UniProtKB/TrEMBL annotation:
Compartments reported by the entry: Cell envelope
Upper classification of the organism: Bacteria, Bacillati, Actinomycetota, Actinomycetes, Kitasatosporales
Signal peptide extent: 1-32
Taxonomic superkingdom: Bacteria
Cofactor(s) annotated in UniProt: a divalent metal cation
Protein name: Bifunctional metallophosphatase/5'-nucleotidase
Keyword vocabulary terms for this entry: Hydrolase, Metal-binding, Multifunctional enzyme, Nucleotide-binding, Signal
SUPFAM superfamilies assigned: 5'-nucleotidase (syn. UDP-sugar hydrolase), C-terminal domain, Metallo-dependent phosphatases
Family as reported in the entry's similarity comment: Belongs to the 5'-nucleotidase family.
Domain Calcineurin-like phosphoesterase: 54-300
Reaction(s) catalysed (UniProt annotation): a ribonucleoside 3'-phosphate + H2O = a ribonucleoside + phosphate; a nucleoside 2',3'-cyclic phosphate + H2O = a nucleoside 3'-phosphate + H(+)
Length: 609
């Protein structure tokens, strides 16, 4: 893919890309900006000229514009009564701009923007933005209207393929940044690495603020089908070390990193990739010259977190606002003019909660028609169910609704392999409980019911594995359970997510029977593994129906990423489930549901029902 030299790219004697973005992506013009508020005035404390400004940040918006849950068809709510969406964020942004002065603020994002809700799915797949005379993506419309200055690329930006991402980029009035998203052939940036913004001060000399965008190297695995041979994604630390000195040499007074990478320093990819998934804190620690990092990807809330740079001893502030527009980060910068330049004297961070404000009617009115189209789409009836099914107990029990996912996957793979070399091998299937609140009602089943089981854009593959590999795969999955001694009481709420393992990284395998003894240490928990009533032999061969995230190394499960691929689909598993329901007409749990795995302690079942 050629280097993207689109509307936000300028020229640079140092880099040749993206250096003159100040005019296109900087602060608004004097005519459009209100007068400088108190934050822009000299403090009068006798320590030179001073200037303060604020950088606002969001991350992991995942297609949320409205405070609406398309899977439940009602206003979003959770146990903490959080709200979601850009319409709420817009109200907060307006309030901060009113307080600080519009020209004293910047608004940036740390990625994962165009995937996650049925609103974003609809305009990628049902009424795609890539069609001739296609629509403008709702996220582009909303973010343009709010006035974003820059956004980093997230890994989910690549889920729908590069053409959709490029069209979204074209529709945005701000640059999508990715210093470590490189053209596979030229090794040059495929997107603008950074943007440069001039904030005018009451003291004459403007403050130059550089925003460096970094994305997640795991894209090379998770979206291999979309990016292989087109783009490569080296590590965040090495690319930050390359670009931060350049930005300083170009006159940046302040350097902010917008990183779609968590702060924990965890999750490398073994032999597949030598990079760290959650590297934001490592960037702060290892790369001098950074003032603040807007953190994304991990879906956690970090109002303010300081990391000391090893080389300079300087403290770098990190902040991660909660996903989906539930929080807005504020970085408050205090600068002082000394020795002919602006120097950062202090940076503080905090988050604002979007549930304390109303939705901005300007944003909801702008996208009301799009919202109504999607609501009508997801409420289409596609079949009926003979019984209600819920995922509520899916993390601790073999429940019919998870079996439904696996059954559809297994049937799809069997049909794809029919008549071929691998047709006689037994087909197993993996599935995870993606949401503990999903369900299929008794009676009419809609698109939103079926889609709610699979909120990700994963596709289906078939991989060849042995009995020994299957056992190790299950042992790895069983790390998810907290070790619980036999004999004592059991609290189901405390059995799962050991070591912070998310629900989507626990797999149940359909088609074999086994027990998970949670009284045993990790690595020794799987017992009674059998197929068709007989113990599974180490050299037995199986076909595993598996999603592309897992097959590409997501979750770092053993064996499957290196296993022989027998078949792969290009359609999302979610659509496969919807199509299966439409074709069958009726969902009958008796036709596919059975208890094939259970939790035990020293051989005694944890649950008896």
């Amino acid at each position: 893919m050629p280097l993207n030299r689109r509307k936000f790219l300028g020229t640079s004697a140092v880099t040749g890309v993206g250096a003159a973005l100040a005019g296109a992506a900087g602060a608004p013009s004097a005519a459009a900006a209100p007068a400088i508020g108190p934050s822009g005035h000299d403090s009068g404390r006798g320590h030179g000229k001073r200037y303060s400004f604020t950088v606002l940040g969001t991350t992991d918006l995942h297609g949320n514009v409205f405070n609406w849950d398309y899977f439940t068809d009602k206003e979003f709510d959770d146990k903490a009564h959080n709200d979601v969406g850009l319409a709420k964020i817009s109200t907060l942004v307006n309030q901060v701009r009113e307080e600080k002065g519009r020209r004293n603020t910047l608004l940036i994002d740390a990625g994962d923007t165009i995937q996650g809700t049925q609103l974003s799915y609809y305009y990628a797949k049902i009424d795609p933005i890539t069609a001739e005379r296609g629509p403008v993506h709702p996220m582009a419309q909303a973010m343009n209207a709010i006035g974003y200055d820059a956004a980093a690329l997230g890994n989910h930006e690549f889920n729908y393929g590069i053409p959709v991402l490029r069209k979204f980029e074209e529709q945005c009035d701000f640059p999508l940044l990715g210093a470590n998203a490189l053209d596979a052939k030229t090794q040059r940036p495929a997107f603008p690495p950074y943007s440069m913004h001039r904030l005018r001060t009451p003291h004459g000399r403007a403050v130059r603020v550089a925003v460096l965008g970094l994305t997640n190297p795991g894209i090379a695995l998770w979206d291999k089908a979309n990016v292989q041979g087109k783009m490569v994604f080296p590590g965040l630390e090495e690319q930050a070390a390359k670009w931060v000195p350049k930005l300083r040499s170009m006159g940046a007074d302040v350097v902010i990193v917008s990183a779609h990478s968590g702060s924990s320093g965890t999750s490398s990819y073994g032999d597949q990739l030598p990079y760290i998934e959650n590297a934001a804190a490592l960037v702060a620690e290892q790369v001098p010259g950074i003032d603040a990092i807007l953190v994304g990807h991990a879906h956690t809330e970090i109002p303010e977190y300081f990391v000391t740079n090893k080389e300079t001893g300087k403290r770098v502030v990190l902040s991660e606002p909660l996903k989906w527009g539930q929080r807005l980060t504020l970085f408050d910068f205090d600068l002082v003019w000394a020795k002919g330049r602006w120097t950062v004297e202090k940076v503080a961070a905090k988050v604002l909660n979007s549930n304390v404000v109303a939705e901005d009617p300007r944003i909801t009115g702008l996208l009301g028609d799009e919202h109504e189209k999607v609501v009508a789409y997801v409420n289409q009836v596609i079949g009926t169910s003979k019984a209600a099914m819920s995922t509520a107990e899916g993390p601790v029990k073999d429940v019919p609704i998870i079996d439904l996912i696996s059954h559809v996957q297994a049937e799809t793979v069997k049909a794809a392999l029919a008549g071929g070399e691998w047709a006689k091998l037994p087909v197993l299937s993996q599935a995870s409980c993606f949401s503990r609140t999903a369900g299929i009602p008794a009676g009419e089943v809609t698109i939103r019911d079926a889609a709610g089981l699979y909120p990700f854009e994963n596709t289906l593959e078939a991989r060849l594995i042995t009995g020994a590999q299957l056992k190790e795969y299950l042992e790895y999955s069983a790390r998810y359970y907290v070790r619980t001694p036999a004999g004592g009481p059991v609290d189901p709420a405390k059995l799962t997510n050991a070591e912070g393992i998310p629900d989507y990284n626990y797999d149940a395998v359909y088609g074999v029977s086994y027990e998970i003894d949670i009284a045993k240490p990790v690595g020794s928990r799987i017992a009674g593994l059998s197929f068709d009533g007989k113990p599974v032999a180490a050299d037995a061969q199986f076909v595993l129906a598996v999603n592309n995230y897992r097959a590409s190394g997501g979750g770092n499960f053993p064996h499957v990423p290196g296993a022989k691929q027998l078949w792969a689909d290009s359609d999302e598993i979610r659509n496969t489930i919807i199509t299966w329901v439409q074709e069958k007409g009726t969902i009958d749990p008796a036709a596919f549901a059975s208890v094939e795995w259970k939790l035990t302690r020293d051989g005694t079942p944890v649950f008896t029902d």
